[in-house]
Amino acid sequence: MQPHGAAGPLVAALDIGGTKIAGALVDAEGRLLVRALRPTPPRADGGTVMAAVAEVLAELRAAPGWPGAVAVGIGSAGPVDATHGTVSPVNVPGWRDFPLVPRVREAVGGLPVVLAGDGVAMTAAEHWQGAARGYDNALCMVVSTGVGGGLVLGGHLLPGPTGNAGHIGHISVDLDGDPCPCGSRGCVERIASGPNIARRALDAGWRPPAGTEPTAAAVAASARGGDAVATASFDRAAQALAAGIAATATLVEINVAVIGGGVSAAGPLLFDPLRRHLTQYATLSFAAGVEVVPAKLGTDAGLVGAAAVAAQGLGLFPLGV
């Protein structure tokens, strides 16, 4: 039995990150019909984190529409390994090579399960229902605590063999830059993520207003107030993003770059210098002219995208793009 007004078969979607585990039943038009949410247990062992996932799935299975669910799509913080069905999220230390796909498949009675990285899921969502809809070649990015991404090429999502393709956050754009936790140097994420925007501003002498946490949002507020150090930190982040986008455009020829995640809420403070820097890096005729636009789906992108990844991977229903 499907919920009233549901279109086509349903996909159970999971969006798994370092702070929350979200679930939903998603229909063929991308509507979230039933939702469930649990916090990700901090610093917990793998079994405890999986128990929270199981609670989300149990809540979805208790919904009247569950019999209409034909598959499960998972978008998880990474790295993920879709080939082996395992995940090792940097921000979920209890999971290292954790066999998430078989555990989820067991919890849902054997339904097919499709896994992808959260950047790939966000890309699938924005291509299906958001800012990349109608574009055959796109890069979509999440700029938040980390920097992730995904690619649409030739009209199709390109997850890659392990589900991590398009992970632009770990392209090096400063060859002698700061060491990145991934083991490389000068990665886009090390420069453009929210915590690193705040870190760089603090190192340069910026201080948040009294009673305010030193976050990228606080740096943005100071920049809007005319603080030169705060403005410079955002400009540097925008430059790193522009260099990564230009490298991607040069390699695979994209038409649009969609930027989502918490840092994108800075609006013109991020997008204006990003577009300006992009003209300096994307100089070849086929790479120049990439549109840079904000994402549309916000916090629902992970769930919509997880469903889209499963729909495409299993041929469940047309994604309408």
TrEMBL record:
<keyword id="KW-0418">Kinase</keyword>
<dbReference type="InterPro" id="IPR000600">
    <property type="entry name" value="ROK"/>
</dbReference>
<protein>
    <submittedName>
        <fullName>Glucokinase</fullName>
    </submittedName>
</protein>
<keyword id="KW-0808">Transferase</keyword>
<dbReference type="GO" id="GO:0016301">
    <property type="term" value="F:kinase activity"/>
</dbReference>
<dbReference type="InterPro" id="IPR043129">
    <property type="entry name" value="ATPase_NBD"/>
</dbReference>
<comment type="similarity">
    <text>Belongs to the ROK (NagC/XylR) family.</text>
</comment>
<dbReference type="Pfam" id="PF00480">
    <property type="entry name" value="ROK"/>
</dbReference>
<dbReference type="InterPro" id="IPR049874">
    <property type="entry name" value="ROK_cs"/>
</dbReference>
